[in-house]
Amino acid sequence: MKAFEIKTYGDPNGLSLVDRPNLSPGAGQVLVRIRAVSLNYRDLIVVRGQYDRKPQVGRIPCSDGAGEVLAVGAGVSRFKPGDRVVGCFFQAWLGGRFKAEYHRSALGGAIDGVLAEEVLFDQEGLLPLPELYSFEDGATLPCAALTAWQSLVVRGRLTAGDTVLLLGTGGVSIFGLQLAKAAGAKAIVTSSSDEKLKRARQLGADEVINYRSTPEWGKEAVRLSGVDGVDHVVEVGGAGTFQQSVRACRFGGNIGLIGILSGREATTEIFSIVPKILNVFGVYVGSREMFEEMNRALSQNRIKPVIDRVFPFAESPDAFRHLEIGAHFGKVVISV
Amino acid sequence: MKAFEIKTYGDPNGLSLVDRPNLSPGAGQVLVRIRAVSLNYRDLIVVRGQYDRKPQVGRIPCSDGAGEVLAVGAGVSRFKPGDRVVGCFFQAWLGGRFKAEYHRSALGGAIDGVLAEEVLFDQEGLLPLPELYSFEDGATLPCAALTAWQSLVVRGRLTAGDTVLLLGTGGVSIFGLQLAKAAGAKAIVTSSSDEKLKRARQLGADEVINYRSTPEWGKEAVRLSGVDGVDHVVEVGGAGTFQQSVRACRFGGNIGLIGILSGREATTEIFSIVPKILNVFGVYVGSREMFEEMNRALSQNRIKPVIDRVFPFAESPDAFRHLEIGAHFGKVVISV
Amino acid sequence: MKAFEIKTYGDPNGLSLVDRPNLSPGAGQVLVRIRAVSLNYRDLIVVRGQYDRKPQVGRIPCSDGAGEVLAVGAGVSRFKPGDRVVGCFFQAWLGGRFKAEYHRSALGGAIDGVLAEEVLFDQEGLLPLPELYSFEDGATLPCAALTAWQSLVVRGRLTAGDTVLLLGTGGVSIFGLQLAKAAGAKAIVTSSSDEKLKRARQLGADEVINYRSTPEWGKEAVRLSGVDGVDHVVEVGGAGTFQQSVRACRFGGNIGLIGILSGREATTEIFSIVPKILNVFGVYVGSREMFEEMNRALSQNRIKPVIDRVFPFAESPDAFRHLEIGAHFGKVVISV
Amino acid sequence: MKAFEIKTYGDPNGLSLVDRPNLSPGAGQVLVRIRAVSLNYRDLIVVRGQYDRKPQVGRIPCSDGAGEVLAVGAGVSRFKPGDRVVGCFFQAWLGGRFKAEYHRSALGGAIDGVLAEEVLFDQEGLLPLPELYSFEDGATLPCAALTAWQSLVVRGRLTAGDTVLLLGTGGVSIFGLQLAKAAGAKAIVTSSSDEKLKRARQLGADEVINYRSTPEWGKEAVRLSGVDGVDHVVEVGGAGTFQQSVRACRFGGNIGLIGILSGREATTEIFSIVPKILNVFGVYVGSREMFEEMNRALSQNRIKPVIDRVFPFAESPDAFRHLEIGAHFGKVVISV
Fold first, then answer.
1. pTM confidence score
2. Helix (H, G, I), strand (E, B), or coil: what is residue A22?
3. Is residue A295 part of a domain?
4. Hey, how many other C-beta atoms are within 10 angstroms of the C-beta on B313?
5. CB-based contact (8 Å) between A101 and chain C?
């Protein structure tokens, strides 16, 4: 079977399509024919060799894949051949509080990922793909959608009537927009492109802000909130945006830090959160239990993932480059 | 000014339209010209003399009123003449945990209510009427809507994708349906009338159950939930429905007990909640802070209160009788 | 190896000591030499054949055992021979929300229990025994202590300064007392025996009530709370005590229903919880994650389980009879 | 009556003892003879003129005072002459979520404070002084104790068995230590003084770290936690300590930011909280409802405030200077 390996770290050119021996499932394992993969900014960081747990040469990248069960090993009760499935970012984080050891089960990071025709999963590391989704749709969920879900719903306890501020139009923010609208919240979206803001409005954004023409967008978000600020920010921007995000919040507001975009060196005025009594929390994808509950919500609300573009498997490096440019709106997907 | 007083307890015939001296606001007080009142089952219990803190002869009934500010007393900063306002059920429960003393501030129970042309409020016991609402709309909110809100959102922590079971089509249940849909949940409604179930579907109910033709409606609700039961029941039915409500729930599900309908003598198998690890909680309207947050949610989602019928002020006793029959769908309102 | 089997259901005489073939651990399994077992009221119900999922003839009873690892199967990483361990009541409930399927993993109920010299566990169904505990101590934890922990801490969110009402002096209540005191709460204990109340005081109870001489003990608990009632009741009594428990609570108080004692037929005035806005929740032991966090708390506070009496293995039926009489204070243990 | 006013801003020399006209309570007001005042670092910032809402010349400083009711105005029901009382930092934050307008009710900041013989309070801005406390004890509670309470208990949901890291031995940290121990948690205290660490141990600290001899004290706190890090940090240190505090935390740990010490300009690597999924929240004293619940906990656990030194009223500027040096252990108090 074919797979992409990272032959050299640095940029997407280091990805190489190789033949790997076919796999067969051991006890408790499930062999999946991957049909679609989606990319996250983290995959780009991995390929650049900047991810904190640097994978070895020959590592298969990517965390997000959906496909079809080909075969199951002894003792597998959760799935059978033919089932449509989607993998969990953290193969070992089923529920409960996060433990350090779960980092070692992150697909496409500490262990081989899903940019391959076939992948072996532990049966506990898979979920059924919701009926309403194609493989392309399903492949967008494991990282970006779940990050937005954890930030807004699990940690932020999003409530109808709340106001949510989404930064930009990448995968996490667009899912955040869709979840906010499904949950009865008001959504404000920022972008530097009026064209993208127009599309955000079509997806339900109540208000939009062009952060280029409105550099004090935090203050503008307060105005648009109708009260004394927004209740939630999904902070994917990093240190460059954090102070405006704080500005945007109401007393007791929530900021979910994703922050992969700006790397680890970012410094900012953290203590500005004190007088506003803000809650700032790190968000790192989520557990299988969160994924299950999100899937219920996505299905119930018939939320259609926004896919920017689908690349054929052989052109996977181009998909990485497309993500790198940052001109996408929603998710970049590879059809396997 | 004119007002209805309870001259004799027993039934709506005991209500009498009287002239009362005009009022003027003292320090911190606001005089409101009531424009609309809505009825709750509790008002019927009050009029029957069955309410636990039996009001005195001459008491003005009703907790839910909306109107216009006529005049304000010294030191009033929250409102000015002309403002459209709605009153809080518990005049003294602004926020935080409930205290025994707040019972003494319940409109139309421990103190005079709002079935009058003019009512004096403490400025702290009023909220601005959301812009999108008429006085009739606004008068439906203080008790029924807030009860549904506290049950589902504040106590039950309603989440997108959850399933909500609503019993019947009275005021609380219809607001529960509307809030559930606004928050991205699945809603199941029961009734003995197929006609009402049809209307519930028009309001967004995903599934409906005629409890007459399906006496084991708890089991049916499990099936319709798509998982192992519903996440929330707004239990307005009382002892007659509680066991089916327990049956309907999934493990760890929530049952908000309103229970005014069936009075205080109801007994039931409370310990059936143990093996399902359910949460059962008493719900008693809500605080002003909850009311404010609900109003944000109602406005954001442009939820239109469902008004069954509007009676003229002079025919208030007929409005009580209409509620008594139980044939309504949504709220019964009196235009003052 | 020797084990007790339930040969006939009805009473402890139906227990029979038999020889069973020796066991050896398969993949992921751990063989444990049980050193001590503790009894719970549920074990008595099982032996009587009254447990809802009636076990088959030949079933080994008891859920609570501690011992030493004899051998581990392939792939076991959590334990090694010689480790001191304690088993989890629900072998499959590791964390997160409860699922129906977990009922099928309850030791001494749906599957064989621990009243045996040797037991095979899945490695995920065991925890290390905290250092400060003997095997006898450890055997008291899985059901009674965890039930008290879930009720007070996980569900009730026990806070320093709260008042906790404990009914009687059985295993759950005594652990509830110890946990309440460790967490800075005030504890009130009821009993019909002044002698037991004296011992409860020695364990830290701030106040005691003899429910025989004070039949209106709910009202007395309000008085002793110093405020308008207690914050938490660990309701092990059942329908016979529920109304007094409701009476004892303050507005918004918590009642954790254990309720195994009085069986399933109990009826009570559930709607009495509405005007006090109480939270009533079913408690069913707990997950492995809760068990781990409880063990941290027990160790940190050096809580010594209160053991009423230790019986030798051969006299296990006598231990059951001793529990049946109800004269114990704390836990009844069998040394294996 | 005599009071200290801030005549010139910059340092404690600007404080001046003046005669002010006697006060008499208006409607709803309570006149209090202040008996003791405690100092907080914020008072020093006020006197330096560095507080964000700069008070006017002639402002009476200090937020924390306890005393005795001299007289009450019309309509006062909560207190009567002779009652022992303590004031709330935010006079207007009774309960519920914080609102911007509450900032305008902060004693010794936006409005006159309590460094005076007599002070007029709204009756809602006072609480009864717990019986077990002297006026000196009581004066330590409004700011420092409540800040520790909100951080650990209200926001951090402190649970028995958790590990708490306290930075230094100032007022907030010492209350944090006492609350942590009362709630059954493990407490680790840092200081640069072995002498102070010895005293912290006497107050119950389980572990201590001299941060001068152990500059990597975050790592040391992980080791001392016994698990993968501490559950809570009360972060009074500011930007200089934040990275070590992050280091000290376990996955999902809580950092309460107080942060007055290091001012507003501090920058730090906020995104380091992402991979550890931390919760970082601003803490700003607390509401009256929190204060009431804290008082229950303090009384129940007979927690004795640690008072470093008591200055006579006339020497108030010396008390400020004593705080400024930073050699104190616990609270600095002025007897009025």
1. 0.95
2. coil
3. no
4. 20
5. no
